[in-house]
Task: inverse folding
């Protein structure tokens, strides 16, 4: 059962019960951020990338990774940041045997642009990418993510990604001597897909469940190599 804590919205005083999300660690063990029952939730006024992620240690294998900071959206419109502790999650021990196979990717539902970025980052981590962070250079559209040896673009726009979008990502990745991948919520223009196929750029479409669907050959190869 996921850990739950009572949460009261400081804006409208509504009472909620928040359940901590669970994500698969690279070792296969379920991992959830440890919630702090004593600390009050904090309304989110401004987004800062570094504050949207926390470091959580897996009690099964000891690995430390960054995961989305727990948040709750109140019906009044207030977004609440749920406090966490610095202790490892309960229910597993460091001596436990890790799962022998990679677990399936577990997305989070997409309701906002931030959710799309979170899902893309989680998917990249599931693929085995390390040191995922906000890219230093902002792309012409969407949000850039950087990992070790990889540059990714997440495009939550309500239009298909264009040829220029794909070309700009490729040129930026070439400058950094990195591979690249593109995530879109609404697909790709025909010439953008043709360009990506020619350059070997993996293209993914994020559906509203958060699942990342490969839509060209390079993306299918990347997914199959890690599945």
Result:
């Amino acid at each position: 059962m996921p850990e739950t804590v009572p949460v009261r919205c400081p804006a409208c005083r509504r009472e909620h019960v928040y359940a901590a999300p669970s994500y698969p660690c690279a070792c296969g063990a379920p991992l959830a951020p440890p919630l702090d029952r004593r600390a009050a939730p904090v309304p989110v006024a401004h987004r800062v990338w570094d504050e949207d992620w926390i470091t959580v240690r897996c009690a099964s294998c000891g690995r430390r990774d960054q995961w989305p900071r727990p948040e709750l959206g109140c019906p009044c419109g207030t977004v609440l940041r749920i406090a966490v502790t610095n202790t490892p999650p309960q229910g597993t021990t460091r001596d436990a045997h890790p799962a022998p196979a990679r677990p399936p990717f577990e997305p989070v539902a997409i309701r906002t642009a931030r959710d799309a970025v979170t899902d893309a980052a989680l998917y990249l981590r599931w693929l085995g990418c390390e040191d995922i962070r906000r890219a230093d250079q902002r792309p012409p559209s969407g949000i850039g993510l950087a990992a070790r040896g990889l540059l990714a673009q997440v495009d939550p726009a309500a239009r298909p990604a264009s040829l220029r979008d794909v070309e700009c990502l490729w040129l930026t990745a070439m400058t950094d001597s990195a591979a690249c991948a593109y995530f879109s919520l609404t697909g790709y223009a025909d010439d953008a897909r043709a360009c990506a196929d020619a350059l070997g750029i993996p293209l993914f479409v994020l559906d509203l469940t958060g699942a990342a669907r490969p839509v060209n050959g390079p993306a299918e190869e990347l997914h199959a190599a890690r599945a």
User: Anything to note?
Assistant: The chain has two domains: 4-81, 113-226. Confidence is low (pLDDT under 50) at residues 87-100. Helices lie at 113-127, 163-175, 190-199, 217-226. Residues 113-127 form the longest helix (15 residues).
